[in-house]
Amino acid sequence: MITTNTIFWTQIASIVAFVFAVFALYRLLVDQKDATIQSLKENVSYLKDQIADVKQQSPDVLAERLSKRMKLLEDELTKLGDDTSSTEAEVKAKEAELAHARAEAEALTRQVLHARELLQEYQCPHCGAPLVERAYHSESVEYQGRELDIDHNWSTFECGLEIVDGLERHRCRSGGSPMTRTLSRNQ
Fold first, then answer.
1. In whole angstroms, what is the distance from residue 64 CA to residue 70 CA?
2. 106 with 81, same domain?
3. Do 63 and 77 fall within a single domain?
4. Range of the domain at 81
5. C-alpha closest to that of 77 among 67, 88, 66
6. Domain shared by 83 and 133, yes or no
7. 3-class DSSP state for residue 69?
8. Sequence-distant contacts of 117-123: CB under 8 A, at least 24 apart
9. Could you report the per-residue pLDDT of 27-58, keeping only the tens digit for each?
10. Is residue 53 part of a domain?
């Protein structure tokens, strides 16, 4: 027969085992939380490094560096021209280096202008708000006994502008133009 004393000590042992199990579970969860926090810190650090790298490669920074390099080359060329001991080969080498830097600057300018042209397609033509959604739909219709496929182009911008097949269906909230103004097909 089970005595009261046995039941009492069994209950105490169960409570102690439960407390240890809860404590072990708590430690496990805390360790997982700490590992997650550490992982997120490493992720944030990595992303900050990537952002810094991208900022260093932006067109503005590259243009500024190229401009400084061209100024330095022009100054060196002026010094070489003033220096009587410099050889004609050194002057020609600096001139060639300066011409190369100018060509790089022109190429960078063309790339930036081309990027801006490409970006215009993804911005509101009135206020510059970014494109939210662009969708293309096909529709098959029958006309005079022939089946035709019609493609529809639908674009929505953050400012509320909605363009369907080159026609503005909803205006730009920043003060766009009339509702049904026809836009050029290459926008």
1. 10
2. yes
3. yes
4. 58-120
5. 88
6. no
7. helix
8. 120/187, 121/187, 123/157
9. 999 999 999 999 999 988 888 888 887 777 77
10. no
